[in-house]
Design brief:
By secondary structure, this protein is α/β, with parallel strands linked by helices. The protein folds into 2 domains: 138 residues, Rossmann fold; 198 residues, Rossmann fold, CATH 3.40.50. It is built from 13 helices and 15 strands. Strands 8-10-7-6-13-14-15 form a 7-stranded parallel sheet, sandwiched between helices.
């Protein structure tokens, strides 16, 4: 889900990793890919969660890679027990299937920092690129404050924001949310408190194509809004939210007196599909001062330039603050550019999206 950073954060010693997977082939493959980085040390492997439990006590790893589907105990059940008894950074290893998507989203809700797909060895250059992604996410997980993540998962925000709504303005306003690493749960928490009659919402989350439908369905279950994966062209109406499909871009445009969103196959400068920058830039161009944009947790800088354009166009902009972010990369980039009018904790994002535009920009 996150972008590839230019390099790992500085550490006084290598990141110690324990690999948990029931496949001996996968354990060897992942070990080899990780040990290609001198700043990563594979301290052990485990074929199931029960062996992993003993090795965690003995080896005290910094990060766990955890297979989703295993015998004796599935990965998510083990993860829930682990986060309750000994919270630590976990990167899930998931299959790119509909079933794998649902289970992986459950794991992120249970406290996993991030996930990687099972590697595809049949694609030219695929294994090399997979190794880069895997190593980057291991370094990122090692620097993630898991106590903060566990607190966010355990105490989702609550509130009723209906009193902030102005029905006269709802039809012409559009809200936009962008995120990457840690964003599936952050977006869920924001949408869980948005009232049913709020302005339409468009969402760009870095996510594989196989996962975005399940992600939209999960958001719909937790929200008073009607949340769907965006198709080729949809009207934007109050009480609706549209999720950019993995592998496609989402753009907002004017249609007569209202708004619509459409998806495209275009590339972005930063390589993301969906790209938060592209979505925000379309907001700036077409919605202008009636747009509000929020940039949440994530690696890299996608969304920062687009958010600056939203602010320059008169729209309201808000970034998630560092203490409540899993990774303060994308929001930090926006703050550095002067793109964010406000920087607030995650549990204030929904309120500022709805009410911030009323109080000046």
């Amino acid at each position: 889900m996150g972008s590839i950073s230019p390099g790992p954060p500085s550490r006084s010693r290598p990141v110690r990793v324990l690999i948990v997977d029931d496949s001996a082939t996968m354990r060897r493959l992942v070990s080899g890919l990780l040990e290609a980085d001198p700043l990563i040390e594979v301290v052990g492997t485990a074929a199931d969660p029960f062996i992993a439990r003993d090795k965690i006590k003995k080896l005290a790893p910094d990060v766990l890679t955890l297979d989703v589907e295993m015998p004796r105990m599935d990965g998510v059940s083990f993860l829930r027990n682990l986060m309750r008894l000994r919270p630590m950074p976990v990167v899930m290893v998931s299959s790119l299937t509909e079933q794998g998507a649902g289970v992986t989203l459950d794991a992120l809700a249970a406290g996993a920092v991030d996930f990687v797909a099972k590697p595809r060895v049949d694609v030219e250059g695929g294994l090399e690129a997979y190794g880069v992604e895997l190593r980057t996410k291991i370094h990122n997980a090692a620097s993630t404050p898991v106590a903060r993540l566990a607190e966010t998962v355990a105490h989702p925000p609550r509130g009723n924001l209906s009193e902030l709504l102005d029905p006269r303005r709802n039809a012409r306003r559009v809200l936009a949310i962008g995120a990457s690493t840690g964003g599936t749960e952050a977006i869920r928490q924001v949408l869980s408190v948005l009232p049913a009659g709020c302005p339409p919402v468009v969402i760009a989350q870095h996510i594989p194509a196989a996962f975005s439908t399940a992600f939209a369905e999960r958001l719909d279950r937790y929200s008073a809004l009607s949340v769907q994966e965006a198709g080729t062209d949809q009207p934007l109406l109050p009480g609706q939210a549209w999720v950019a499909p993995g592998g496609r871009q989402l753009r907002v445009y004017r249609n007569g007196s209202g708004w619509r969103c459409r998806t495209t196959t275009e590339s972005s400068e930063n390589g993301h599909k969906p790209s938060v920058d592209i979505m925000f830039e379309s907001m700036a161009e077409h919605v202008g001062r009636d747009g509000s944009a929020a940039l949440l947790t994530g690696m890299g800088s996608d969304g920062a330039r687009g958010m600056l354009r939203v602010r320059d166009a008169g729209g309201f902009t808000v970034a998630q603050d560092q203490p409540s972010s899993v990774v303060w990369g994308m929001p930090r980039a926006a703050v550095s550019l002067g793109a964010a009018r406000e920087v607030v904790p995650l549990d204030h994002i929904a309120e500022r999206l709805i009410g911030g535009g009323e109080n000046g920009r």
